[in-house]
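Lab notebook: predicted structure, single chain.

Context: the supervisor wants predicted structures on file for every construct in the current expression panel, including those that have not yet been purified. This is the next one on the list. No modifications to the sequence; it matches the entry in the shared construct table.
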Amino acid sequence: MTDINSAAAGNADRSAATSATRPAAATAVAEAPAAKKPLPAGLAILIAVVVGGGIAAQARINGELSARAGDGFVAASISFGSGLVILLVCLLIMRSGRAGVARVWGMLRSGTMPWWTVLGGLAGALLVLSQGLTAALVGVALFSVAVIAGQTVSGLLLDRAGFGPTGVVRITAPRAAGAILALIAVGWSVSGQLGGPVPVWVLILPLIAGLGLSWQQAVNGRVKVAAQSTLAATFGNFVVGTAALVVAMLIHSSFVGWPTSLPTEWWLYTGGAIGCVFIGTLAWLVQHTGVLVLGLASVAGQLLAAIAIDVIFPSDATHLGFATFGSTALALCAVVIASARWKRRTR
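Prediction complete. Output recorded below exactly as produced.
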Protein backbone atom coordinates (compact mmCIF):
# COMPACT_ATOMS: atom_id res chain seq x y z
CA MET A 1 0.00 0.00 0.00
CA THR A 2 2.88 2.33 0.85
CA ASP A 3 4.46 1.70 -2.55
CA ILE A 4 1.20 2.43 -4.31
CA ASN A 5 0.73 5.68 -2.41
CA SER A 6 4.33 6.68 -3.15
CA ALA A 7 3.84 5.99 -6.84
CA ALA A 8 0.65 8.00 -6.88
CA ALA A 9 2.36 10.87 -5.13
CA GLY A 10 5.22 10.73 -7.62
CA ASN A 11 2.82 10.82 -10.54
CA ALA A 12 1.03 13.79 -9.02
CA ASP A 13 4.32 15.64 -8.57
CA ARG A 14 5.35 14.96 -12.16
CA SER A 15 1.90 16.08 -13.39
CA ALA A 16 2.18 19.29 -11.39
CA ALA A 17 5.65 19.94 -12.75
CA THR A 18 4.45 19.39 -16.30
CA SER A 19 1.52 21.74 -15.78
CA ALA A 20 3.82 24.38 -14.36
CA THR A 21 6.06 24.33 -17.44
CA ARG A 22 3.27 24.03 -19.97
CA PRO A 23 2.49 27.31 -21.80
CA ALA A 24 -0.63 29.02 -20.50
CA ALA A 25 -2.38 28.90 -23.87
CA ALA A 26 -1.77 25.17 -24.16
CA THR A 27 -3.10 24.66 -20.64
CA ALA A 28 -6.27 26.53 -21.54
CA VAL A 29 -6.79 24.36 -24.60
CA ALA A 30 -6.09 21.20 -22.61
CA GLU A 31 -8.68 22.16 -20.01
CA ALA A 32 -11.34 22.79 -22.66
CA PRO A 33 -13.97 20.10 -23.26
CA ALA A 34 -13.09 17.36 -25.71
CA ALA A 35 -13.75 18.35 -29.32
CA LYS A 36 -16.92 17.07 -30.86
CA LYS A 37 -16.88 14.69 -33.77
CA PRO A 38 -15.95 16.59 -36.97
CA LEU A 39 -18.70 17.29 -39.46
CA PRO A 40 -18.71 15.16 -42.63
CA ALA A 41 -16.71 16.93 -45.31
CA GLY A 42 -19.61 17.26 -47.74
CA LEU A 43 -21.97 18.70 -45.12
CA ALA A 44 -19.39 21.25 -43.91
CA ILE A 45 -18.76 22.42 -47.48
CA LEU A 46 -22.51 22.63 -48.22
CA ILE A 47 -23.10 24.82 -45.16
CA ALA A 48 -20.20 27.07 -46.15
CA VAL A 49 -21.63 27.42 -49.67
CA VAL A 50 -25.01 28.50 -48.28
CA VAL A 51 -23.37 30.96 -45.88
CA GLY A 52 -21.32 32.37 -48.75
CA GLY A 53 -24.57 33.19 -50.53
CA GLY A 54 -25.49 35.30 -47.50
CA ILE A 55 -22.31 37.35 -47.96
CA ALA A 56 -23.37 38.22 -51.52
CA ALA A 57 -26.86 39.14 -50.35
CA GLN A 58 -25.40 41.37 -47.65
CA ALA A 59 -23.16 43.06 -50.21
CA ARG A 60 -26.17 43.97 -52.36
CA ILE A 61 -28.22 45.17 -49.38
CA ASN A 62 -25.44 47.30 -47.89
CA GLY A 63 -24.54 48.65 -51.32
CA GLU A 64 -28.14 49.68 -51.91
CA LEU A 65 -28.42 51.24 -48.43
CA SER A 66 -25.26 53.22 -49.10
CA ALA A 67 -26.57 54.44 -52.46
CA ARG A 68 -29.93 55.47 -51.02
CA ALA A 69 -28.41 57.19 -47.97
CA GLY A 70 -25.58 58.73 -49.97
CA ASP A 71 -22.99 57.73 -47.34
CA GLY A 72 -21.18 54.39 -47.22
CA PHE A 73 -19.79 55.03 -43.72
CA VAL A 74 -23.24 55.58 -42.26
CA ALA A 75 -24.58 52.50 -44.07
CA ALA A 76 -21.76 50.31 -42.73
CA SER A 77 -22.29 51.60 -39.17
CA ILE A 78 -26.01 50.90 -39.36
CA SER A 79 -25.37 47.38 -40.65
CA PHE A 80 -22.83 46.45 -37.99
CA GLY A 81 -24.67 48.29 -35.22
CA SER A 82 -27.95 46.49 -35.91
CA GLY A 83 -26.11 43.17 -35.73
CA LEU A 84 -24.65 44.15 -32.36
CA VAL A 85 -28.14 44.91 -31.01
CA ILE A 86 -29.36 41.48 -32.14
CA LEU A 87 -26.43 39.78 -30.41
CA LEU A 88 -27.00 41.73 -27.20
CA VAL A 89 -30.55 40.38 -27.10
CA CYS A 90 -29.24 36.86 -27.69
CA LEU A 91 -26.76 37.26 -24.82
CA LEU A 92 -29.55 38.29 -22.48
CA ILE A 93 -31.38 35.08 -23.34
CA MET A 94 -28.49 32.58 -23.52
CA ARG A 95 -26.44 32.00 -20.37
CA SER A 96 -23.81 30.02 -22.29
CA GLY A 97 -23.07 33.09 -24.40
CA ARG A 98 -22.54 35.27 -21.33
CA ALA A 99 -20.30 32.61 -19.81
CA GLY A 100 -18.25 32.53 -23.02
CA VAL A 101 -17.79 36.31 -22.99
CA ALA A 102 -16.69 36.18 -19.35
CA ARG A 103 -14.27 33.35 -20.18
CA VAL A 104 -12.66 35.33 -23.00
CA TRP A 105 -12.44 38.46 -20.89
CA GLY A 106 -10.74 36.53 -18.10
CA MET A 107 -8.21 35.01 -20.52
CA LEU A 108 -7.43 38.43 -21.98
CA ARG A 109 -6.85 39.89 -18.53
CA SER A 110 -4.62 37.00 -17.48
CA GLY A 111 -2.65 37.11 -20.73
CA THR A 112 -3.44 33.52 -21.71
CA MET A 113 -5.11 34.80 -24.90
CA PRO A 114 -3.31 37.33 -27.15
CA TRP A 115 -5.20 40.62 -27.48
CA TRP A 116 -5.06 40.55 -31.29
CA THR A 117 -7.21 37.41 -31.45
CA VAL A 118 -10.30 39.46 -30.60
CA LEU A 119 -9.74 42.02 -33.37
CA GLY A 120 -11.38 39.97 -36.11
CA GLY A 121 -14.19 42.51 -36.12
CA LEU A 122 -11.86 45.02 -37.79
CA ALA A 123 -11.72 42.82 -40.88
CA GLY A 124 -15.49 42.42 -40.79
CA ALA A 125 -15.89 46.18 -40.54
CA LEU A 126 -13.65 46.67 -43.58
CA LEU A 127 -15.69 44.13 -45.56
CA VAL A 128 -18.99 45.83 -44.73
CA LEU A 129 -17.52 49.27 -45.47
CA SER A 130 -16.21 48.08 -48.83
CA GLN A 131 -19.67 46.69 -49.60
CA GLY A 132 -21.19 50.11 -49.06
CA LEU A 133 -18.50 52.00 -50.98
CA THR A 134 -17.91 49.73 -53.98
CA ALA A 135 -20.62 47.08 -54.48
CA ALA A 136 -23.06 49.64 -55.87
CA LEU A 137 -20.41 50.82 -58.37
CA VAL A 138 -19.27 47.49 -59.84
CA GLY A 139 -22.15 45.11 -59.12
CA VAL A 140 -22.30 42.21 -56.69
CA ALA A 141 -20.65 39.67 -59.01
CA LEU A 142 -17.50 41.71 -59.69
CA PHE A 143 -17.32 42.79 -56.05
CA SER A 144 -17.47 39.15 -54.99
CA VAL A 145 -14.68 37.95 -57.25
CA ALA A 146 -12.44 40.82 -56.09
CA VAL A 147 -12.95 39.69 -52.50
CA ILE A 148 -12.12 36.13 -53.55
CA ALA A 149 -8.58 36.99 -54.65
CA GLY A 150 -7.53 38.19 -51.22
CA GLN A 151 -9.53 35.51 -49.43
CA THR A 152 -7.91 32.67 -51.38
CA VAL A 153 -4.31 33.83 -50.98
CA SER A 154 -4.62 34.65 -47.29
CA GLY A 155 -6.49 31.39 -46.59
CA LEU A 156 -3.69 29.32 -48.11
CA LEU A 157 -0.96 31.19 -46.21
CA LEU A 158 -2.79 31.24 -42.88
CA ASP A 159 -3.43 27.50 -43.07
CA ARG A 160 0.25 26.87 -43.80
CA ALA A 161 1.30 29.07 -40.88
CA GLY A 162 -1.05 27.20 -38.53
CA PHE A 163 -2.95 30.38 -37.73
CA GLY A 164 -6.40 28.79 -37.54
CA PRO A 165 -7.77 26.52 -34.80
CA THR A 166 -6.98 23.40 -36.85
CA GLY A 167 -3.22 24.05 -36.65
CA VAL A 168 -0.78 23.74 -39.56
CA VAL A 169 -2.36 22.54 -42.81
CA ARG A 170 0.33 21.83 -45.40
CA ILE A 171 0.13 23.15 -48.95
CA THR A 172 -0.71 20.19 -51.16
CA ALA A 173 -0.85 20.15 -54.93
CA PRO A 174 -4.70 20.24 -55.07
CA ARG A 175 -4.86 23.14 -52.59
CA ALA A 176 -2.23 25.13 -54.46
CA ALA A 177 -3.91 24.41 -57.81
CA GLY A 178 -7.27 25.50 -56.41
CA ALA A 179 -5.81 28.76 -55.15
CA ILE A 180 -4.13 29.47 -58.50
CA LEU A 181 -7.34 28.75 -60.42
CA ALA A 182 -9.27 31.08 -58.10
CA LEU A 183 -6.79 33.89 -58.78
CA ILE A 184 -7.01 33.29 -62.53
CA ALA A 185 -10.78 33.45 -62.26
CA VAL A 186 -10.56 36.79 -60.48
CA GLY A 187 -8.17 38.23 -63.06
CA TRP A 188 -10.45 37.08 -65.86
CA SER A 189 -13.55 38.58 -64.28
CA VAL A 190 -12.08 42.02 -63.65
CA SER A 191 -10.02 42.29 -66.83
CA GLY A 192 -12.80 44.12 -68.61
CA GLN A 193 -13.00 46.73 -65.86
CA LEU A 194 -9.32 47.64 -65.75
CA GLY A 195 -8.61 50.80 -67.70
CA GLY A 196 -12.32 51.63 -67.86
CA PRO A 197 -14.38 54.28 -66.07
CA VAL A 198 -14.30 52.38 -62.75
CA PRO A 199 -11.48 53.71 -60.48
CA VAL A 200 -8.80 51.20 -59.54
CA TRP A 201 -9.42 51.65 -55.80
CA VAL A 202 -12.95 50.31 -56.26
CA LEU A 203 -11.43 46.92 -57.10
CA ILE A 204 -8.48 47.17 -54.67
CA LEU A 205 -10.64 47.83 -51.60
CA PRO A 206 -12.65 44.57 -51.79
CA LEU A 207 -9.38 42.76 -52.58
CA ILE A 208 -7.93 43.99 -49.28
CA ALA A 209 -11.19 43.13 -47.53
CA GLY A 210 -10.85 39.58 -48.85
CA LEU A 211 -7.35 39.33 -47.37
CA GLY A 212 -8.79 40.28 -44.01
CA LEU A 213 -11.78 37.93 -44.33
CA SER A 214 -9.70 34.76 -44.03
CA TRP A 215 -7.77 36.25 -41.12
CA GLN A 216 -11.09 37.07 -39.45
CA GLN A 217 -12.31 33.50 -39.85
CA ALA A 218 -9.05 32.16 -38.39
CA VAL A 219 -9.02 34.32 -35.26
CA ASN A 220 -12.75 33.90 -34.76
CA GLY A 221 -12.22 30.15 -34.76
CA ARG A 222 -9.57 30.56 -32.05
CA VAL A 223 -11.85 32.71 -29.92
CA LYS A 224 -14.74 30.29 -30.39
CA VAL A 225 -12.61 27.38 -29.14
CA ALA A 226 -11.38 29.37 -26.14
CA ALA A 227 -14.83 30.75 -25.28
CA GLN A 228 -16.58 27.43 -25.94
CA SER A 229 -19.33 29.58 -27.45
CA THR A 230 -19.97 30.68 -31.04
CA LEU A 231 -22.21 33.46 -29.75
CA ALA A 232 -19.42 34.90 -27.61
CA ALA A 233 -16.98 34.92 -30.54
CA THR A 234 -19.54 36.58 -32.83
CA PHE A 235 -20.45 39.16 -30.18
CA GLY A 236 -16.81 40.17 -29.76
CA ASN A 237 -16.57 40.63 -33.52
CA PHE A 238 -19.49 43.02 -33.61
CA VAL A 239 -18.33 45.03 -30.60
CA VAL A 240 -14.93 45.70 -32.19
CA GLY A 241 -16.32 46.22 -35.70
CA THR A 242 -19.08 48.58 -34.60
CA ALA A 243 -16.67 50.67 -32.53
CA ALA A 244 -14.28 51.01 -35.47
CA LEU A 245 -17.03 51.94 -37.92
CA VAL A 246 -18.63 54.49 -35.58
CA VAL A 247 -15.27 56.24 -35.14
CA ALA A 248 -14.71 56.23 -38.93
CA MET A 249 -18.26 57.53 -39.50
CA LEU A 250 -17.81 60.41 -37.04
CA ILE A 251 -14.52 61.45 -38.65
CA HIS A 252 -15.96 61.19 -42.17
CA SER A 253 -19.15 63.06 -41.30
CA SER A 254 -17.20 65.88 -39.64
CA PHE A 255 -15.79 66.67 -43.10
CA VAL A 256 -18.68 65.91 -45.47
CA GLY A 257 -21.73 66.25 -43.22
CA TRP A 258 -24.53 63.83 -42.38
CA PRO A 259 -27.11 62.31 -44.75
CA THR A 260 -30.24 64.40 -44.98
CA SER A 261 -32.53 61.34 -44.89
CA LEU A 262 -32.49 57.56 -44.71
CA PRO A 263 -34.53 55.11 -46.81
CA THR A 264 -37.63 53.56 -45.24
CA GLU A 265 -37.59 50.08 -46.85
CA TRP A 266 -37.17 47.55 -44.03
CA TRP A 267 -35.08 45.07 -46.02
CA LEU A 268 -32.28 47.61 -46.40
CA TYR A 269 -31.58 47.19 -42.69
CA THR A 270 -31.23 43.40 -42.65
CA GLY A 271 -27.50 43.38 -43.44
CA GLY A 272 -26.59 43.20 -39.75
CA ALA A 273 -28.78 40.14 -39.16
CA ILE A 274 -27.21 38.38 -42.15
CA GLY A 275 -23.77 39.26 -40.81
CA CYS A 276 -24.59 37.69 -37.43
CA VAL A 277 -25.47 34.43 -39.15
CA PHE A 278 -22.48 34.13 -41.46
CA ILE A 279 -19.82 35.35 -39.00
CA GLY A 280 -21.08 32.97 -36.32
CA THR A 281 -21.41 30.05 -38.70
CA LEU A 282 -17.95 30.55 -40.21
CA ALA A 283 -16.40 30.81 -36.73
CA TRP A 284 -17.94 27.41 -35.98
CA LEU A 285 -17.07 25.79 -39.31
CA VAL A 286 -13.40 26.77 -39.53
CA GLN A 287 -12.33 24.16 -36.97
CA HIS A 288 -13.90 21.46 -39.18
CA THR A 289 -12.49 22.59 -42.53
CA GLY A 290 -9.40 24.75 -42.19
CA VAL A 291 -9.18 28.33 -43.43
CA LEU A 292 -8.62 27.72 -47.15
CA VAL A 293 -11.34 25.13 -47.76
CA LEU A 294 -13.83 27.18 -45.75
CA GLY A 295 -12.95 30.28 -47.75
CA LEU A 296 -13.23 28.55 -51.13
CA ALA A 297 -16.53 26.87 -50.25
CA SER A 298 -18.03 30.16 -49.09
CA VAL A 299 -16.64 31.72 -52.27
CA ALA A 300 -18.62 29.22 -54.35
CA GLY A 301 -21.85 30.23 -52.66
CA GLN A 302 -20.90 33.87 -52.89
CA LEU A 303 -20.35 33.70 -56.64
CA LEU A 304 -23.50 31.71 -57.38
CA ALA A 305 -25.65 34.02 -55.27
CA ALA A 306 -23.97 37.13 -56.71
CA ILE A 307 -24.79 36.13 -60.29
CA ALA A 308 -28.34 35.19 -59.31
CA ILE A 309 -28.81 38.57 -57.62
CA ASP A 310 -27.41 40.51 -60.57
CA VAL A 311 -29.60 38.52 -62.99
CA ILE A 312 -32.85 38.73 -60.98
CA PHE A 313 -32.31 42.22 -59.53
CA PRO A 314 -30.03 44.02 -61.99
CA SER A 315 -28.68 47.46 -61.18
CA ASP A 316 -26.97 50.17 -63.22
CA ALA A 317 -23.60 48.77 -62.12
CA THR A 318 -24.32 45.19 -63.18
CA HIS A 319 -21.74 43.82 -65.64
CA LEU A 320 -22.74 40.31 -66.70
CA GLY A 321 -20.99 38.80 -69.68
CA PHE A 322 -19.02 35.77 -70.77
CA ALA A 323 -16.08 36.71 -68.50
CA THR A 324 -18.31 36.87 -65.44
CA PHE A 325 -19.96 33.49 -66.05
CA GLY A 326 -16.71 31.85 -67.17
CA SER A 327 -14.72 33.10 -64.17
CA THR A 328 -17.46 31.91 -61.85
CA ALA A 329 -17.32 28.41 -63.32
CA LEU A 330 -13.52 28.44 -62.98
CA ALA A 331 -13.76 29.52 -59.34
CA LEU A 332 -16.20 26.67 -58.63
CA CYS A 333 -13.70 24.23 -60.15
CA ALA A 334 -11.08 25.68 -57.81
CA VAL A 335 -13.28 24.85 -54.82
CA VAL A 336 -13.70 21.23 -55.95
CA ILE A 337 -9.98 20.77 -56.62
CA ALA A 338 -8.76 22.40 -53.42
CA SER A 339 -11.14 20.42 -51.20
CA ALA A 340 -10.74 16.99 -52.84
CA ARG A 341 -7.75 15.83 -50.80
CA TRP A 342 -9.29 17.13 -47.60
CA LYS A 343 -12.37 15.00 -48.26
CA ARG A 344 -10.34 11.81 -48.68
CA ARG A 345 -8.36 12.50 -45.50
CA THR A 346 -11.58 12.96 -43.53
CA ARG A 347 -13.03 9.64 -44.71
